[in-house]
Amino acid sequence: MSALQFLREKAGVLVVVIIGLSLFIFVVSDFFGNGRGQRIKANKYYEIGRIGDETVTFQDYEQKVQNLLDIYKLSGNTSPDENTIESIREQVWQQVIREKVLDKQYSKLGIGVSSEEVDELVLGSNPHPIVAQLFTDQETGAFNKSFLVNFLKQTELDETAKKYWLYFEDEIVNDRMSTKYNTLVSKGLYVSSKQAEFDRNLSAATVDFSYIMKNYSSVADSLVKISQSEIESYYSGHKDNFKRTALRDIEYVTFDVVPSEEDIKQAEEWITKTKTEFAEAPDPEQFINLTADTRHIGFFVPLSQVPDTLRDFAKNENTSEIFGPYNEDGTFKLARILEVANRPDSVHGRHILLSPGSTRSLDQARSQADSLVKLIRSGTSFAFLAMSNSDDRGSSQLGGDLGWFMEGRMVVPINNACVSGKKGDILTVETTFGVHIIEIMDQSRSTRKYNVGIIDRKIIPGSVTNQRIYSEASQFAGTNNTYEKFNQAIAEKSLTKRVANDITPRQKTLPGLDNPRGLIISLFQAEQGKIVLDNSEQAVFEIGDKYVVAFCTKVQEEGVAELKDVENDIRFILVKDKKAEILASEFEKNLQDGKSLDDIASAMGLTIREATQVNFRSYSIPEAGNEPALIAAASAAKEGIVSGPVKGENGVYMITVNNIASSGSEDIKLFKDRLLTTFQMRGSYEAYEALRKAANVEDKRYKFY
Asked: Are 498 and 512 in contact (CB under 8 A)?
């Protein structure tokens, strides 16, 4: 097996391993580079973000995305969907941030990985988990060093495989550097005996307590006065609490691009003319593939699976007659029965796949297939030859067995060979995967099946229709370029206006639009109260089968909100604080020496409530809800003493602890060790988060994707 093919087969493992590592470390090498020390920094083209004082260029970022996509595609996923691509983009962005943030720390701390370490991680007695997972012997479940050595020898003859391997080797280096850094951080952490004892006691103790409460709503708003200077003072001291993301509001109208009567007429004329040609075609299947919008697959189906519209037509089994034209879901169609035959419902088969590649040409695969067929016919075990020769690793371990499969479940050449042949046949067919040697092991009973050929022509708007609707949208945008005119024209023309608020820079959806990302990107370059323009200064956006004209109605930039935008929020906070002071003062007036909670409750007309089995780490209190200050006060209070007042989220409380219980006293040394382990696990993450925050990361990807 070639080195590149080995990587393809292991690609699923590699993607999982690399992505798993990258959640903690980062992809740092140029894909075809020779390691960290030899990376070439991209020239400054388009700025996609900033991390500290360093610029991230579009070119550099996009290259890293493509690198990871190439690894993903190794597993056979040659056409990743948009969600997958977006997930990879996000992962690479996080990787780039870690690279920029942590590379400086590595350099400052003198962290590196020597070439000797790399050799030990790859070829040593205790290889890196990536290496161990790639070169595990499936039979023994153990790492097989000889597999690795043979693979590395092959990479010297396969440049593509070598480049991929260098990428994985860089990942190993990055992981080791990350491990060293995290170890350094964790070794700097310490837990004192006093801290451990305090935490242990808090965790072990539970309390039962009684409490009374007065809600903030019991104080009339008119009794609380908040000055403008108090609001300004609070704002100045709490600006970090008012950071906000960039947001936009948009209003837009759509002009649907739908076929005109002329478009329908042209499609009908085309299908009518094609009917005669279809009837006279010497090779109907080829004619379909050259003419129709949809290629003919060539599978046979029983009468029950023939579309209802064609079932009576198919029963006649007339292979020269044409059915149609008929209109189905906006598409004109013609139908012809290409072939009728008795075919099995399902087939049990096995195969040997010989794939051409860097070490074997297609002609060589054909020649090898001929040799293997001769061996099979001379009595050599098919299963043995499959296990030792087949490039389909999924079935080779089963002797090439494909199991039972129904018609239509295999690619066309294999499908047709298996259902057209008979039990015991040894066949050779070619597909895009390579040359297949197939044995038909068994077949189910035959049923009457139909190969129905369809010529379809979707009714779509023509260029004249597109131009007319675009002109209509363009004229609308040009003559209604103020918000007042925009809304007036909508009313006059009875158009439907859509509204979308609080749109984020990375948002990908808008009501009623398919893939409006281009419009959203442009929206974040638009001014408030202005029509949205694309990069070419055009006001009409083509989105799916619609032309769209939009207005930007609100702009909120990223950063600290202006005072006027958060003034009401601050006022609410200050009102609550002053109400808390009023209620606390009221409680304190009733709190005299010797007075019990019952006395205070009676004097103030309040109801006593009970809470049991409350721990410092509890999340809520029955009837009180989420009240962390109340939980903390109860956990720290002494038994039998009235405590408070406690300023909570919903009101002010007075409490009395009725009982303190302990779940047991864990050995202080064991608890101390466990607490230290917890701190060490959190330490690296929190250290990184602090560095990341200090770097002032600016994400500008929304301008490009």
From this structure: yes
Among the listed residues 280, 351, 375, the one whose alpha carbon sits nearest the alpha carbon of residue 322: 280
* pLDDT tops 90 at residue 566: yes
* Residue 311, phi then psi, degrees to nearest 5: -65, -45
- The span from the CA of 614 to the CA of 611, in Å, is 7
Question: In which residue are the tokens 């002109």 written?
Answer: 471
Q: If 0-12 CB within 10 Å is exposed, 13-18 middle and 19+ buried, where does residue 470 land?
A: middle
* Beta bridge partners of residue 214, listed in sequence order: 652
| C-alpha span between 639 and 207 (Å, rounded) | 9
3-state secondary structure of 487: helix
Place of tokens 């006093």: 194
Same domain, 436 and 294: no
pTM across the whole model: 0.63
Instruction: For residues 561 and 385, give the distance between their C-alpha atoms in angstroms, rounded to a whole number.
Output: 71
Q: Collapse the DSSP code of 631 into the 3-class scheme (helix H, G, I; strand E, B; otherwise coil) and give the result.
A: helix
Helix (H) or strand (E) holding 100: helix 82-109
How distant, in Å, are the alpha carbons of 69, 72, 157, 555 from that of 75? 11, 6, 22, 44
Radius of gyration of the chain (CA): 36
- Single residue among 322, 343, 364 that ends a domain in this structure: 343
The span from the CA of 333 to the CA of 338, in Å, is: 15
Beta carbons of 351 and 400 less than 8 angstroms apart: yes
Partnered with residue 643 across adjacent β-strands are 655
* Pair (321, 364) in one structural domain: no
Torsion on CA atoms 504, 508, 510, 511, rounded to nearest 10: -130
Secondary structure (DSSP) of 526-579: SPTTEE---TTS-S-EEETTEEEEEEEEEEE-SEEPPHHHHHHHHHHHHHHHHH
pLDDT at 201 over 80: no
Residues 143 and 170 in one domain: yes
Range of the domain at 332: 261-343
Condensed to tens digits (0 to 9), the pLDDT of residues 461-480 reads 999 999 999 999 999 999 99
Residue 260 token pair? 């005109």
Residue 524 lies in a domain: yes
Task: Single out the residue of 357, 353, 352 nearest to residue 5, CA to CA.
Answer: 357
Q: String of b and e for 686-697 (b: at least 16 CB within 10 Å)?
A: ebbeebbeebeb
CA separation for the pair 703, 705 (Å, rounded): 6
131 and 38 assigned to the same domain: yes
Is-contact 4 70, C-beta < 8 A? no
* Kind plus residue range of the DSSP H or E element containing 170: helix 159-187
CB-based contacts of 282, cutoff 8 Å, min separation 6: none
Which of the four pLDDT bands, split at 50, 70 and 90, describes residue 36? very low
Residues 536 and 590 in one domain: no
The CA distances from residue 592 to 445, 595, 607, 637, 657, in Å, are: 96, 6, 19, 18, 18
Cis peptide preceding 344, ω within 30 of 0: no
Shared domain for 18 and 123, answered yes or no, is yes
> What's the CA gap between 516 and 76, in Å, rounded?
29
Tell me the three state secondary structure of residue 10.
coil
Provide the CATH number for the domain around residue 350: 3.10.50.40
Q: Are residues 40 and 133 in the same domain?
A: yes
Calpha distance 436→390 (Å, rounded): 9
373-398 tens-digit pLDDT = 999 999 999 999 999 999 998 898 89
Give yes or no: residues 14 and 140 share one domain: yes
Q: Map residue 634 onto helix, strand or coil.
A: helix
| Structural tokens at position 204 | 């072990």
Half-sphere CA count of 303, side-chain side, radius 13 A: 12
